[in-house]
Amino acid sequence: MTFQKENMRNIFDKIQGNYGIVSPSFLRSEIPLTSNGLQKIDFSILAPSSSDRLSEKKLDRNDDFLITEIGIFLMKEDSTAKYIQKRVPYVDPVIFADNSTTFYGKHLYAIYQGRLRLLINNTLKIDGISCWEFLKEPEKQQSAGAFYAINASGAEATTSVLAAASKKLVSDNNSSNPRDGFYPCTPQYLIHGDDTLELYSTVINNGALTFVHTASNQVNFVVFEARGFLCQQPKAVRVRK
């Protein structure tokens, strides 16, 4: 079943009559980057298992999920402080800082040069949307710049007051719109927990890229997240369309 682009209220009204419970929710797959020769990233959003990371969320085989938005993000995790990492829709130069000559953060932009494909029960639903659509650079400085004032003689002079203000105006907290990085999925697809799903993105790799962080306690991840409605307790036999 698919829905054309509609108001979320209208979509909710259409599907709620078919289920006992319909609620806003998400699905998330987190894939560690363990090879610099990466050319394809397979995401799994069905069938929860004991091997899933605590921050992942998969669809149970008895439930359905209506996808309204999708996004691809980057994340870096420190093994000494798991599950407190941020996922960001761009290559943050602070989070993904270069590590000597063995890891270059800018190489992660290759993730966004690829294409995303989705097949449901062997039927192609999303045919190679550019991952560049998910890239959202924040509209702010990444580090504090110099602030200047004009002194009595007309010359530029850095002032302590403005310098202090700069620390408040320019920060590295990556405060951005929570919708950044998400792309509307239209039409919206209703997937079943017992569907056969193939979801992956390609990677344009010239053979000289560094995706694997070389610090022993650092791991880079690519994250796929879908937002939408979790549909539970179907009131009738599910019919695939």
Explain this structure to me?
It contains 2 helices and 13 strands; from the N terminus they run βαββββββββαββββ. The strands form 3 sheets. Strands 1, 2, 4, 5, 10, 11 and 13 form a 7-stranded antiparallel sheet that branches. A 4-stranded antiparallel sheet has the order 3-12-6-7, with no helix packed on it. The relative contact order is 0.34. The protein is elongated, with a radius of gyration of 22 Å. The chain starts with a strand and ends in a 7-residue tail after the last strand. The longest helix is centred in the last third of the chain and has 10 residues, at 160-169. The protein has one domain. The model is unreliable at 159-175 (pLDDT under 50). It has 241 residues and is mainly beta.
The description of the largest β-sheet is: 7 strands, antiparallel
The overall strand count is: 13
Please state the structural category. Answer: mainly beta
Intertermini distance = 5 Å
Low-confidence stretches: 159-175
Mean pLDDT, rounded to whole units? 81
Taken together, the total number of domains comes to 1
Helix-residue proportion: under 10%
- Which shape, going by the Cα principal axes? elongated
Number of helices: 2
Q: Please report which band the strand proportion falls in: under 5%, 5-15%, 15-25%, 25-35%, 35-45% or over 45%.
A: 35-45%
Alpha carbon gyration radius: 22 Å
Write the element-wise H/E pattern from the N-terminal end onward: EHEEEEEEEEHEEEE
